[in-house]
Amino acid sequence: MDNLTPKEIVAYLDKYVIGQKDAKKTIAVALRNRYRRMQLDEDMQHDVVPKNILMIGSTGVGKTEIARRLAKMMNLPFIKVEASKYTEVGFVGRDVESMVRDLATTSLSLVRAEENEKNKEKIAIYVENKIIEKLLPPLPAGASEQKKADYEHAFAKMQEKFEKGELDNLMVKVEVPDHPMLSDDGLPPQMIQVQESIVKVLGAYGKKGTEKELSVKDAKKILETEASQELLDEEQLKTLALEKVEKGGIIFLDEIDKIAVSSSAQSRQDPSKEGVQRDLLPIVEGSTVQTKLGMVKTDHILFIAAGAFHLSKPSDLIPELQGRFPLRVELNSLDEETLYRILTEPKHSLIKQYQALMKVEGVTLTFEEEALRAIAHYSLTANEKTEDIGARRLHTVVEKVLEEISFSADEYTGQEISVSKTLIDEKIGSVVEDEDATRYIL
């Protein structure tokens, strides 16, 4: 899906995100330009740098949802990070280079999954053979032709049973790897290097693994990983992942407004915020970062930044960083009609989700048209009276309305429950009228 046209990208996003046409178009063109660049000659490719995007809009208007859907849609390395989680070099906390390391890890996982899919049949055969060999007594050396024929017949019979799932409950002994599971999340670069050294040392001792008795069903998962390691060349995977991350990586940098220093608060400036911006600048401009894949060049990674900018403005970012986000798009606030559409139109809208959840209990949940309009109306009113949290308010309102029905769902098995405007008014109306109640309940 990495060569979709801008119209196809927008059409895909339209299934899940209502409105925000400008943001969708800008991102669609930026993504298409990644594909266009790869069709150019190598010399020109180097000079065509990605046009990074700054999305400006209140919380709950669709910034994160667009990013989340892009992550599912794109066959490219993609991560979403919060700028506010990073600290200036020299302070305790995550350094900005860790986002590139995270992206590299994502790229490796993506490439590994792609290669596993390509080798799906080989992996399945490997797993099947391994399990049957563990279940059948080994064929002794120098066995007669008759013994060999009997073994092959028994093996074929076991294959039939394996394919039908008839062996799933049998127990077999498999080797479970003892690789140390360590994370670099939240660690400064010096500690990450120490951790990688520990992994190498422990890996030398823990490579053999521990033999455990598991059901065939559970053993399949362990052996699939083993097959993947046997069949795939780890160094080749890293090379492919490195190429993928450098040519098509995307980093969604949320809450970038949290590291901006408001010009109206000069006396209360947080020096570490500007420090994070200065640390971020070389990565966005193009630098080289040490990762598990090797040295990753960030020159052609696409950065999409987003922020509400309530207490600060984009111009409060340092000028150099502003210049690295030439494409700016403002997302619209949500009106009542948009909230109604968000509630009903997306492929897996909130209403469809609740209906599916109740269906599990054997309850058919329906909503009157007036009830849906009332939910949108009360959500907008609550946003206006208190903090505007956009579409997230719909979750709060719907949960409050359906709380009792959801709690007692087992009593309504086989029945149809219709949610009326009267029920909405009863559950939400008085709460929304009281501003203090709205703040604490909705």
Automatic annotation (TrEMBL):
Positions of the AAA+ ATPase domain: 49-331
Entry EC no(s): 3.4.21.-
Keyword entries, A-Z: ATP-binding, Chaperone, Hydrolase, Nucleotide-binding
Domain Clp ATPase C-terminal per the UniProt entry, residue ranges: 334-430
One MF annotation (Gene Ontology) recorded for this entry: hydrolase activity
CDD domains, per the entry: RecA-like_HslU
InterPro entries per the UniProt record, alphabetical: AAA+_ATPase, ATP-dep_Clp_protease_ClpX, ATPase_AAA_core, Clp_ATPase_C, HslU, P-loop_NTPase
UniProt key word Amino-acid biosynthesis: no
Presence of keyword Cell membrane: no
Family annotation (SMART domains): AAA, ClpB_D2-small
Pfam families, sorted: AAA_2 (PF07724)
PANTHER family: ATP-DEPENDENT CLP PROTEASE ATP-BINDING SUBUNIT CLPX-LIKE, MITOCHONDRIAL-RELATED (PTHR48102), ATP-DEPENDENT PROTEASE ATPASE SUBUNIT HSLU (PTHR48102:SF3)
Family to which the UniProt record says this protein belongs: Belongs to the ClpX chaperone family. HslU subfamily.
Protein name in UniProt: HslU--HslV peptidase ATPase subunit
Organism this protein belongs to: Sulfurovum zhangzhouensis
GN (gene name): hslU
